[in-house]
TrEMBL record:
Keywords assigned by UniProt, alphabetized: GTP-binding, Hydrolase, Nucleotide-binding
Molecular function (Gene Ontology), one example: hydrolase activity
Keyword Nucleotide-binding: yes
Protein's UniProt name: GTP-binding protein
Family: Belongs to the GPN-loop GTPase family.
InterPro entries: Gliding_Motility_GTPase, Gpn, P-loop_NTPase
Pfam families reported in the protein's UniProt record: ATP_bind_1 (PF03029)
Keyword Nucleus belongs to the record: no
Length: 182
């Protein structure tokens, strides 16, 4: 399959602490991260470090160069989401599935991502290894999307993370082929 521009740019987006940095580090061969210690007291309760600009990772999937750009999760850094989205072919939207509250909190950011355009995307429900996690089918219902575009994820599991990424790449390539057909 020939890829326009010779690569795919994929955004890895989602709320704070949804697993974006972990995902990029798990799947990519070359990684650049802009993590700093968390200074906000409320956020310190969730994790020790946070992304302030973006995470970057490169890998090859079925011979296709994939450039991953992980967005910061804090809404105060929302201006970076639009900047990083420039030129993307699609995005992976990570949701913290460890609690129903986190799933509902993610809907606003998902709505924002959809406002950037009609890009191919997959919603990945992360932290499926946590007891009592919200199943992808429930997330699909809450987000009012086709369950075919929602996938389970454990961001630290390389095989599972690659499988979710491959699902997105296939979706991007399929949509591209559909646009080419007369």
């Amino acid at each position: 399959m020939q890829v326009q521009r010779g690569y795919l740019k994929i955004l890895v987006s989602g709320p704070y602490a949804s697993g974006k940095t972990t995902f990029v580090r798990t799947v990519a061969e070359n990684v650049l991260s802009t993590e700093v210690p968390v200074t906000t007291p409320g956020e310190q309760k969730v994790k020790e470090y946070t992304t302030v600009a973006f995470d970057y990772g490169k890998l090859y999937l079925d011979g296709i160069p994939i450039y991953l750009f992980g967005t910061p999760g804090q809404t105060r850094l929302q201006f970076m989401w639009r900047v990083l989205a420039q030129g993307m072919h699609g995005y992976l939207f990570l949701v913290d599935g460890s609690s129903l509250l986190e799933v509902y909190r993610a809907r606003g950011i998902y709505t924002y991502m959809k406002s950037l355009g009609n890009y191919p995307h997959i919603i990945a429900v992360n932290k499926q290894d946590v007891k009592g996690s919200v199943p992808p089918s429930r997330v699909a219902s809450i987000f009012n999307v086709d369950p075919a575009y929602v996938a389970p994820l454990v961001a630290r599991d390389k095989a599972m993370a690659i499988s979710v990424l491959k699902k997105l790449v296939d979706l991007i390539l399929t949509r591209r082929e559909e646009r080419v057909v007369p």
